[in-house]
Write a structure and sequence with these properties.
Helices cover 28% and strands 27% of the residues. By secondary structure, the chain is of the alpha+beta class.
């Protein structure tokens, strides 16, 4: 499992026990982990001729919408959603 995947498992499955985190007041260390996880993932953007990888950024303005399998991110193309496998 990669860094992002292991961070998501540790945070949402172990720390929160799979509980809903929508409207959770994220402390600085939790936000930091989400930032780190987002930045570890690459989003490939194309300007019409060249494709280049870019790190995702945590969508801070929509962090209250973050849930166990849904994280707001910012891509070079605008707002996006990071989703990951959730066995529920």
């Amino acid at each position: 499992m990669d860094l992002a995947g292991s961070n998501l498992v540790e945070l949402f499955e172990k720390h929160f026990g799979g509980s809903v985190t929508r409207n959770y007041e994220w402390p600085d260390d939790g936000r930091g982990r989400l930032r780190e996880t987002s930045a570890a993932l690459r989003y490939w953007a194309c300007n019409g001729t060249t494709e280049e990888p870019h790190a995702l950024r945590l969508g801070e303005s929509r962090i209250h919408e973050t849930d166990e399998a849904w994280i707001s991110v910012i891509t070079p193309d605008g707002p996006g959603v990071l989703v990951w496998f959730n066995s529920d």
